[in-house]
Design a protein that fits this description.
A hairpin with a 3-residue loop joins strand 12 and strand 13. The chain is an alpha/beta fold. The radius of gyration is 19 Å and the shape is globular. It has a 7-stranded mixed beta sheet. Strands 2-1-3-4-6-5 form a 6-stranded parallel beta sheet, sandwiched between helices. The chain has 2 domains: about 120 residues, NAD(P)-binding Rossmann-like Domain (Rossmann fold, 3-Layer(aba) Sandwich), CATH 3.40.50; about 170 residues, Dihydrodipicolinate Reductase, domain 2 (2-Layer Sandwich), CATH 3.30.360.10. The two termini are about 25 Å apart.
Length: about 300
Amino acid sequence: MTKVFIDGSAGTTGLRIHERLADRKDIELLILPEELRKDTAARREALHTADIAFLCLPDDAAREAVALAEGSKVAIIDTSTAHRTEDGWEYGFPELYGRRKRIAKSKRIGNPGCHASGFIALVEPLMRAGMLHRNVNLSCFSLTGYSGGGKKMIAEYESTDRDALLNAPRMYGLTQQHKHLKEMTRICGMDVPPIFCPIVAPFYAGMEVTVPVHAKTLGANIKEVGEVYKAYYKDGLVKFVESGDEGGFLSANAFEGRDDMQITVTGNAERYVLVARYDNLGKGASGAAIQNMNLLLGVDEATGLIV
């Protein structure tokens, strides 16, 4: 039986991973007592005992965990930002061209960022198809539920006397230096980072990532763009739909509680909006991590997930 350790199991991503794995019969969860959860020696022992470890930690703590695992045979899936673009680490988005097989053989997997997942899912296939080029200038508007901010932000939003400013969507990443920009740019093969506008809104979970683009930039009509996505996403947890709206609307929390992603293209003959919708804790975090684990185990990648 495969031994699995979640380092950082008390955070929102770790808790969701634990929830999804709790009833699995093919794995044994290694769980540290509460008093040893941050104990260096106990963590090292767990990492050296485990076959697969999820790191659900801040960046510095994730780097420390990798150092603690040195000399072991454990396969690490890191959900932090620390290793997503590092040499020797495979980017854990199986639906991207050629990555599924590489992930299945890897011992070091960097789980994608939540906002980055949607942007990359929309842009990388069009780059590969030649509709977008390395020097393209793009922008990205992304809505997320507050659970993506972790326990502290969840407590702030769910407080009975919360600040009135939390009752409306709030933009952040104001300096255009958001931590996801590096992977968005590198994985898509872009020379110029997109102008990125992330928004946290007063709903628990869900994500809606949009990329506006002119038809003349792509040199293709909406149907042709859709055909690229349809051919690209034949396997995995990302699915293209021609029209996924709800009576003329697209809700950002439509995929709350799920582990898959839906993408679509809206607009007219001149201007398009590329849209990805998913759960920031699902395909944007823990669901993607478990999908990567399933590939390491050689089982159906949707095993134990809600799709």
